[in-house]
């Protein structure tokens, strides 16, 4: 499923917390949290998504759900976000696709 629209991306701090996929997550892991509808009651746990921002690309693993995210929007772990932009940016517009 390709998200053809640019979607809002922010970051959050998993900090060794237990993600919705029932495993501890680290700030240093390339983790993504999906909106509740795309999380699909855990059906997408541990799938990978490719994220594009400007001329940069990262691969992140779905490990959590973002209950406050609109459909298509994602939250990234700090290290994943920082690979694309500085944390000071706060929110960036990306495109992403399941791999």
Automatic annotation (TrEMBL):
Alphabetized UniProt keyword annotations: Signal
Regions annotated as coiled coil: none
Highest rank taxon of the organism: Eukaryota
CDD domains xref list: DPBB_RlpA_EXP_N-like (cd22191)
Pfam families: DPBB_1 (PF03330)
Domain RlpA-like protein double-psi beta-barrel intervals: 40-95
InterPro entries from the UniProt entry: Expansin_CellWall (IPR051477), RlpA-like_DPBB (IPR009009), RlpA-like_sf (IPR036908)
The keyword ATP-binding appears for this protein: no
UniProt protein name: RlpA-like protein double-psi beta-barrel domain-containing protein
Organism: Lentinus tigrinus ALCF2SS1-6
Upper classification of the organism: Eukaryota, Fungi, Dikarya, Basidiomycota, Agaricomycotina
